[in-house]
Design brief:
Elements: H1 5-13, H2 20-35, H3 38-45, H4 50-63, H5 69-78, H6 81-94, H7 97-122
Helix pairs in contact: 1-2, 2-4, 3-4, 4-6, 5-6, 5-7, 6-7
Length: 123
């Protein structure tokens, strides 16, 4: 029986949970979140400590649910480079119109920033 996403995240915070136990907990979160992603999304948005947040983002990326598009877009808009790859991979895996549009907008924005930086250096 699944103890709930909150309990699983609490276990991940524990210093006594390591190795295979982390894998088991993450697997349980992922299996539950495939059909019920809202609790996982809430946990990601709560901004847990950096390590746990990255683990949760990896799970969110893996389940590729359309409900997570807004989370991934927020990450891309925030400029948090260490989380950017999770968001890009997650959007690519979702691969619907909204996700593809977000990826195109991010690419255009990055190209614009690059051009502005290049132009500023040329001065």
């Amino acid at each position: 029986m699944y103890p709930g996403t909150e309990k699983c995240v609490e276990l991940l915070r524990s210093n006594s949970v390591r190795g295979t136990w982390i894998d088991i907990i993450c697997h349980e979160i992922e299996q539950y979140s495939i059909t019920n992603p809202s609790k996982l999304i809430e946990a990601v948005e709560r901004r847990e400590n950096h390590g746990i947040r990255r683990v949760l983002l990896g799970i969110l990326e893996n389940i590729a649910c359309p409900e997570s598009i807004s989370v991934f877009i927020k990450i891309l808009e925030s400029g948090e480079e260490d989380e950017r790859d999770y968001a890009v991979r997650g959007l690519r895996r979702i691969d619907n119109k909204e996700a593809r549009t977000a990826l195109v907008q991010v690419a255009a924005s990055a190209e614009k920033r690059s051009a502005e930086t290049s132009h500023a250096r040329d001065r």
